[in-house]
Design a protein that fits this description.
Blueprint lengths: L3 E2 L5 H10 L4 H13 L13 H8 L2 E2 L4 E7 L5 E6 L5 E8 L9 E4 L3 E3 L8 H5 L1 E4 L2 H16 L9 E4 L9 H12 L11 E5 L3 H10 L4 E5 L5 H7 L8 H15 L3 E7 L6 H10 L5 E7 L13 H13 L3 E4 L13 H10 L1
Parallel strand pairs: 1-2, 6-9, 9-10, 10-11, 11-12, 12-13, 13-14
Antiparallel strand pairs: 3-4, 4-5, 5-6, 7-8
The structure holds iron/sulfur cluster.
């Protein structure tokens, strides 16, 4: 018999399963709310579903909450979690708790979409380890649900308000699962997180950018650009050899033509690339593109040899873009003292096990 992952099921799928096992339709709605809205972690917590019905449901639905292996807290409110999956693999996700820095009620979770990553970006701890597997819908949604569960034990009113698919893995290489997870997280009877409060970040998987434009789920798109020069980007993001900047920019233009949505271009700045000529090349590349540039000072990652950029040089870099009429912001540095760069916590934990 087909066993489905409870946290990955839509309400309609649960209705279908309840029908097959002769349970009333309202059980499906109760189940969906316990799991997706109240974020419970056990069958026993579903108080209005009787023991016999729970047992029947268990025969068709597996329920594996993520196991919290480690939690790190930063002074700025950022919390980083290392979760163990049912097969023993581990993933990271981060809660950026903006409530403590003045902008009330904004709680963003940075979600992982794969165990490891095949892209192998030179600046990324996850990329150093290679690809292990895609996450299921239940495992993607589960990160938001389990963070909600843990934080609500201290703050019962806690709600996740924003999601960025920017953790471990390339979300557009796990496209179908990510899109289904988005629908679940957006569901009114679930976490009810607005589509426009979710952002997919990609290193530039061109066919999937076009597909996302056509499917147009109204989520935000961020492209990790990092440099305007193919010869540099080939080394930083090996995916660039397959989809060089010319093709990537054409796909971005098509995306904005179809969706009328502005793209965020992420540029990681290091001590090595925070240069006037880099900024000028970026300004030329983005001329006429409906977008916004987000400058990110890198967190140093062991093994990559990259250093943080000088803040004054960062300001000059931003000014070159602004003078060219490009909108620019600098991402707040968050959780630097807790190994906040993607993959660092997992790398550190695995190192301790050796
Ligand atoms: S930065 Fe993203 S796409 Fe690149 S290796 Fe890391 S996880 Fe993969």
């Amino acid at each position: 018999m087909d066993i489905r992952e409870l946290r990955g099921c839509s309400e309609d799928e649960l209705i279908e399963i309840c029908k097959e096992i002769s349970l009333k339709r309202f059980r499906a709605s109760q189940l969906f709310q316990w799991v997706q809205q109240k974020a419970v972690r056990t069958w026993e917590e579903m108080k209005n579903i009787g023991g016999r019905d729970r047992q029947t449901l268990c025969s068709r639905l597996s329920f594996y909450p993520l196991e919290k292996v480690r939690e790190q807290r930063s002074k700025d409110g950022t919390r980083k979690y290392l979760f163990r999956l049912n097969d023993g693999e581990t993933i990271e996700c981060v809660l950026m708790d903006y409530a403590r820095t003045g902008s009330r009620d904004r709680h963003t979770v940075c979600v992982s979409t794969q165990v490891g990553c095949a892209v192998g970006c030179a600046f990324c701890a996850t990329g150093l380890e290679g690809f292990r597997r895609n996450l299921s819908v239940a495992e993607i949604v589960g990160q938001v649900l389990d963070i909600t569960y843990y934080v609500r034990r201290e703050d019962p009113d806690f709600l996740v308000t924003n999601i960025v698919f920017m953790g471990m893995g390339e979300p557009l290489l796990n496209y179908d699962q990510v899109l289904q997870a988005i629908l679940l997280l957006n569901h009114r009877q679930g976490q009810n997180i607005g589509m426009r409060r979710m952002t997919i970040s990609t290193c530039g998987v061109v066919p999937r950018i076009i597909q996302l434009a056509k499917d147009n789920p109204q989520v935000g798109l961020a492209v990790s650009l990092h440099t305007a020069r193919d010869e540099v980007r080939n080394d930083l993001i090996p995916m660039n050899r397959r989809y060089p900047l010319g093709r990537l920019m054409a796909a971005c233009r098509e995306y904005t033509q179809i969706t009328h949505r502005r793209i965020t271009f992420e540029v990681a700045l290091t001590a090595g690339n925070v240069k006037q000529e880099e900024a000028e090349a970026l300004a030329r590349l983005l001329k006429g593109q409906f977008g916004h540039v987000n400058l990110i000072p890198v967190n140093p990652v062991a093994g990559t040899g990259m250093e943080r950029p000088d803040p004054e040089l960062m300001r000059r870099f931003a000014r070159v873009l602004e003078d060219a009429g490009i909108s620019v912001s600098s991402r707040e540095e968050r959780g630097a003292e807790i190994d906040a760069a993607c993959g660092q916590l997992r790398q550190q934990w695995e190192g301790e096990l050796k």
